[in-house]
Amino acid sequence: MPPYYGPDEDSDTIFLERTFLAGDFVSGVGYGIQIVMYLTCATFLWKSRKERRRSTFLLVYISLLLCVETLFEVAQSNTVQIMYIDNRNYPGGPWKYFLATQQLPINIIFIASLFTLTFLSDLLVLWRCWVIWSAFGDLYAYLAMGFPCFLLLASFALGVIWALQSSQPGLSLFSSIPVAFGTSYFAVSLSVNIVLTILISVRLLYYRHKIVANLPKGAGDDYVSLIAILVESASIYSAFALIFLIAYAVKHPINSVFLTIASAAQQIANYLIIYRLAQGRGWDGQTPRLTRLTTLDFNVGLQPEISTGDVGMDSGMEFSQNEEALSPHGVMQEAPLDVKLHRLSTFA
Questions:
Q1: pLDDT averaged over consecutive 10-residue blocks of the chain (348 residues)?
Q2: pLDDT at position 154, please?
Q3: What is the Cα–Cα distance from 275 to 44, expressed in whole angstroms?
Q4: How far apart are CA 34 and CA 24, in angstroms?
Q5: Rounded CA gap, 65 and 267, in Å?
Q6: Largest Cα–Cα distance of the chain, in whole Å?
Q7: What's the pLDDT score for residue 211?
Q8: Residues sharing a CB contact under 8 Å with residue 336, sequence separation 6 or more, in sequence order
Q9: Staple partner for 155: which of 43, 188, 306, 323, CB 3.0–4.6 Å?
């Protein structure tokens, strides 16, 4: 049997160090994906900045996200270097060094950037929820947003306390007091996302049901398809955040891996939302406006021409004034499908 050259540590501590290193690797992969998505979104937003004022705001927002994420990645990689290379012979091993040095600036940056990323991401989903609900009336939006806003404020307060407690000398992310505040913080933050996910999904599913009943198959898929609902609600983050929260609450070492997965998933969900907005396929205040069908729908892909002489008072057909186009031959033609999507009245 070959001699043992491993560290003089118990198996639990070794497993903790392995998961911490694995989390750093996963974080790097997520960062690479985010850079690609940032460049893609930034290109679209830059091209449309003159046509849409919102594009400039979103460009600033994703640039801020990337800057904070870069700080997070620098802190993460530098912490690994300090633990496993610069202080490998610290009494008790790298993990003991990590727990004993949470007050170092690099560790404070790590915690602060993680908290900032989570808060900025929650704000984006909150804004999307407001946009979707306010499109059906401000009253509905105010009623829907009250509870999520309260949860977000509570999440912010708990997050500040968690960050301060985790950076105290002698404490760490995994000490009893920070874990208690951290569990509460992540639970409330996750609750914000779950509530917003439900609100967004319910509203879009309701609109999907209404639009399918009035328009041909495939109409409005850009706004009400299942993929669109999943993207708009940022549900991808909620799933991974729930797994992390459970592992963190029970103090299982695998939480280090799911912490970075959840953080990366949250940022990727943000970029997916903004990518749809940059392409003009995301929801805005005008999407569900005028949702009463005012033109006759014959068949998708086949647009029959109807002579103006064929449409009389006894034909049972009604066309809105100034809404159908006349061909060069004086023939009334059915309006395009994308025009009809904007001729529907509010379902709320």
A1: 79 87 91 95 88 86 95 92 89 84 85 91 88 80 89 92 80 75 87 86 75 54 59 76 87 88 90 80 54 40 44 41 41 44 42
A2: 93
A3: 8
A4: 15
A5: 8
A6: 98
A7: 63
A8: none
A9: 188
CB 72 within 8 A of CB 24: no
Structure tokens at 227: 């993929």
Q: How far apart are CA 161 and CA 167, in angstroms?
A: 10
Distance CA 208, CA 202 (A): 10
Neighbouring-strand partners of residue 135:
none
Is residue 83 a contact partner of residue 76, using CB atoms and an 8 Å limit? Answer: no
Tokens, residue 274: 């903004």
Predicted confidence at residue 286, as pLDDT, reads: 54
How many C-beta atoms surround the C-beta of residue 260 within 10 A?
A: 27
